[in-house]
Specification:
Elements lengths: L11 H7 L7 H4 L1 E5 L12 H4 L19 E4 L2 E4 H15 L3 H9 L2 H13 L6 E5 L5 H9 L5 E6 L2 H13 L6 E5 L12 E7 L8 H11 E12 L5 H23 L2 H13 L3 H10 L3 E8 L4 E7 L2
Parallel strand pairs: 4-5, 4-7, 5-6, 7-8
Antiparallel strand pairs: 1-9, 2-3, 8-10, 9-10
Helix pairs in contact: 5-10, 6-7, 10-11
The structure holds S-adenosylmethionine.
Length: 314
């Protein structure tokens, strides 16, 4: 799906998208929207009034001692921004061992196709340096290594030591040990040199980051000029009936599955809530542009259940 360069109302996009039907062809190269960095952005989306607070909200937090602290969302809960990282860490510490199995069960294996779409858009090449942030157990990093037959240099970065350890184990099992580096770090403060990576990917990670705007600025900082940014994330379903069914499924089945399979219902309740708190497609596109990345484009997969945002450092 395309917007003409002159079309600058984000409201036109959901209206158009809603007219689409559920299309499995979107699994790979779905609806496409281009945002231009100089486009005027309207802030009158009905969701914005409450969903925007997934980014750190300005304003004092009266429950916390640090007056500079701000508040944000952890799922549907409003929490001091200084606490969100710890809460997110606890989640991944708890579910790490069952994380991959849960992904397959929850998505019916579709997460593999969505991740395949990231690789299709990235088109990784040997001798290039890629960073996969919030890498979890290394799905994207391992795909980059497989696509380049081990010739790319990949930094797989995550703030959870447990997820990294599992990822390292998977890599060793597949004989991928050279040129793949594991880094424990927060997406907001990457210990990576300026202008040093050719591609930055983040899959189902940005939603968990406390200050999304800072993570995006970091992404731009570490990218070389000409480097590509790709974010895969759950997003706003553009087809009403699909949205209804998806809501029913996710609020009823996913926490239950989390309880049965991972022994942690709350972690998967957080997952479904955090998806609803995350900025919808256009709003995230605006944030990416505000971080200084250019040629932002949005590709809906499965009617917007998942969206892939691509942008470039120019
Ligand atoms: C839902 S998992 C996604 C993992 C993997 N990218 C995938 O698609 O399977 C989210 C990951 O983000 C990591 N994470 C959460 N907050 C982070 C942060 N601020 N910086 C870096 N990683 C973070 C978690 O530890 C977890 O491994």
């Amino acid at each position: 799906m395309h917007l003409n360069p002159g079309q600058n109302s984000p409201l036109q996009y959901p209206a158009k998208a809603a007219a689409c039907y559920f299309d499995f062809r979107e699994l790979r190269h779905g609806a496409r929207t281009i945002l231009h960095h100089d486009q005027t952005i309207r802030h009158d989306s009905p969701r914005r009034a409450w969903s925007g607070i997934v980014r750190t909200m300005t304003g004092p937090d009266h429950t916390h001692n640090d007056p500079a602290d701000t508040i944000t969302h952890f799922g549907f809960r409003v929490v001091p921004a200084s606490e969100k990282g710890g809460l997110v860490s606890d989640i991944f510490h708890s579910v790490a061992g069952r994380y991959d199995l849960m992904n397959d069960l929850m998505s019916g294996g579709l997460h593999r196709l969505w991740k395949g779409a990231v690789i299709d858009w990235l088109r990784p090449r040997p001798d290039r340096h890629y960073i996969d942030v919030a890498c979890g157990t290394g799905d994207i990093a391992l795909r980059i290594m497989a696509t380049t037959e081990g010739w790319a240099r990949v930094t797989a970065c995550d703030s959870s030591p447990e997820m990294l350890t599992l990822g390292q184990g998977r890599a060793i099992d597949r004989g991928v040990v050279k040129r793949l580096h594991w880094l424990c770090s927060d997406a907001e403060t990457l210990p990576i040199a300026n202008n040093s990576v050719d591609g930055y990917t983040i899959a189902f990670g940005l939603r968990n980051v406390t200050r999304i705007d800072r993570a995006l600025v970091e992404a731009r900082r570490v990218l070389k000029p000409g480097g590509q940014f790709l974010c895969l994330e759950f997003s706003q379903v553009a087809v009403p009936l699909l949205g209804y069914l998806y809501d029913r499924y996710s609020f009823a089945a996913i926490p239950w599955l989390g309880h049965i399979v991972a022994g942690d219902r709350a972690a998967y309740q957080y997952l479904v809530e955090s998806i609803r708190q995350f900025p919808p497609q256009h709003e995230l596109g605006e944030m990416i542009a505000a971080a200084g990345l250019r040629r932002v484009s949005i590709h809906n997969l499965m009617g917007g259940i998942v969206a892939l945002h691509s942008a470039w450092k120019i």
